[in-house]
Amino acid sequence: MSSLMWFRKGLRLHDNPALLAAIEGAKHVYPVFILDPYFLRPDPTAPSPGSTRVGINRIQFLLQSLQDLDQGLQARGSRLLLVHGDPVEIIPSMITQWRVNRLCFERDTEPYAKERDARVKELAAELGIKELVTPSTHTLFDPDETIARNKGHVPTSYGQFCKAIGTPAEPLEAPTSIPGPDPEKKGIPTISVPTLTELGYGESDQEFLQQIVKGGETEALARLEVMMAKTDWVAKFEKPKTDPSAFAEPATTVLSPYLKFGCLSPRLFYSKLMAIYQKKTGHSKPPQSLEGQLLWREFFYTVGHATPRFDCMVGNSLCKQVPWTDDDALLAAWRDAKTGYPWIDAIMTQLRQQGWMHHLARHAVACFLTRGDLFVYWEKGRDVFDRLLIDGDWSINNGNWLWLSASAFFSQYFRIYSPITFGQKYDKSGKYIRRFLPVLKDFPAQYIYEPWKAPLDVQKAAKCVIGVDYPGPIVDHAEASKQCKERMAAAYALAKQSTDLPSQEAVEELRRTVNPGGVKRKEQYGAAGSMAPAGKKSKGDIRKYLKK
Ligand SMILES: Cc1cc2nc3c(=O)[nH]c(=O)nc-3n(C[C@H](O)[C@H](O)[C@H](O)COP(=O)(O)OP(=O)(O)OC[C@H]3O[C@@H](n4cnc5c(N)ncnc54)[C@H](O)[C@@H]3O)c2cc1C
């Protein structure tokens, strides 16, 4: 018997039922990882022309995870076989070349993966593979089982979801030894884990590489241990009470990148939480507790798996049809941290530099881009997060953007985060802003969230003149948020007219009525992202004007 163990996510040895099944009674096991060009296609908005749709912090995390997996396999008598190419071609050719009888891989629920895996399964069956093992271990529960427990209905609220679930299975131990590939077989890959440069990431990308966590199962288990050792903190954890501006020591676990790549099993994380809860009476509860956070992940996986077009507005039965603005200049200002609102720009800078931000910081910028201020399509913001987050995850990212844009799951569109006072609540002196926007570091605390309000002599003393060294606010928040509320109210009223999704013609009509000229910029500062006050042409002109 020989088995092909195809690693995709699930980059771990502990609690890996697919791997254990591959080993069971096998003489040879071929542990393979395929660098799929689908994920490595070029991104026109990336800093280096050759770099790909996966941001540098995430790709570095993946490469480290592969190195760690290879070391773990080697310590057990095997090694990772790394290949570049299309899995739909590569897996069948490996099955034939190495005379594999058993194919094992963890089930994936993302649309691209579902299509790819369905094709691979078909081809494997044609090649006579009798044993196909694809356990659902990226999540605590199999999404289809949860739906079956919910009487065949997709749970569309967290409450419904929590009522439908059972108890997760206990995590399994890592294997102690793994039979190696057959050395007699031809075509066993020998390439090692590539470098960032080999994958096309240039120097201008590498400027943004400020990893806060290193990839791999070893690091994941060590981080889990450190977090779970803080038993009081775990027992009292309530997400809304954690501080989004804490950057030196984040206020949450930062285990999301490990869960994304499966370096950490969610069942192991869950079982450690349960062990702590058993000893601590009065511990916090879902949805705010750490258990509650893992259940949010499960919820979005379940609903995302079973909702057609979950990642789109049009044709998504859960999603409000909103006449968003397709304004690339506003999008670029938000993406490139040039909105002129320091709290927003600092968060977007942290995203680009570190690939991670606190949950409430994600709330703030997602709300600002969509229903709070700029009224830009949520899918456009989702794409930026998808590229830059280390934990960028199809189900969770789409689920949260649907939520934050009040398109699904959450309907209080009128509760808007202020880009000024929300950050101030946690960080009066603006330490977070000074860290991520050093151009503002010398501003007095009084003005750090609204630097455009500082008198010119204060701006000059801080060596940062607004409109010259840092942009003025792109929109007037009071006015923009009022307009956003009116437009959302109209979209909600349209949704009420029928139980069916409104037609796109109706949405277009609404756009003409409530959003005729798009989003109004703050006139004083000219075009979005521009640093020039209205009527002034160049930085040189502005400097002359300021000297007067
Ligand atoms: C607009 C937006 C986009 C997001 N995109 C992603 C994404 O692509 N990938 C991602 O992992 N998280 C995403 N989140 C959810 C959340 O912000 C992160 O999971 C969390 O901040 C990760 O930090 P942590 O590991 O310290 O979380 P902790 O608070 O320590 O939580 C533990 C784990 O629970 C899960 N979790 C926590 N919050 C959520 C949530 N709201 N939804 C689903 N699972 C959750 C994560 O796996 C996390 O690692 C997004 C949130 C928003 C508002």
UniProtKB/TrEMBL annotation:
PROSITE patterns, per the entry: PHR_CRY_ALPHA_BETA
Any one cellular-component term (Gene Ontology): nucleus
Binding site residues for FAD: 252-256, 293-300, 391-393
Feature: compositional bias, Basic and acidic residues: 538-548
Site note Electron transfer via tryptophanyl radical, residues: 324, 378, 401
Gene Ontology molecular function: any one: DNA binding
Domain Photolyase/cryptochrome alpha/beta: 1-140
One Pfam family named in its UniProt record: DNA_photolyase
Listed SUPFAM superfamilies: Cryptochrome/photolyase FAD-binding domain, Cryptochrome/photolyase, N-terminal domain
Reported cofactor(s): FAD
GO biological process: circadian regulation of gene expression; entrainment of circadian clock by photoperiod
InterPro entries tied to this protein: Crypto/Photolyase_FAD-like_sf (IPR036134), Crypto/Photolyase_N_sf (IPR036155), Cryptochr/Photolyase_FAD-bd (IPR005101), Cryptochrome/DNA_photolyase_1 (IPR002081), DNA_photolyase_N (IPR006050), Rossmann-like_a/b/a_fold (IPR014729)
Keywords, ordered alphabetically: FAD, Flavoprotein, Lyase
Region (Disordered): 513-548
Cofactor comment text: Binds 1 FAD per subunit.
Family: Belongs to the DNA photolyase class-1 family.
PANTHER family noted in UniProt: CRYPTOCHROME, CRYPTOCHROME CIRCADIAN CLOCK 5 ISOFORM X1
Protein's UniProt name: Photolyase/cryptochrome
Organism of origin: Klebsormidium nitens
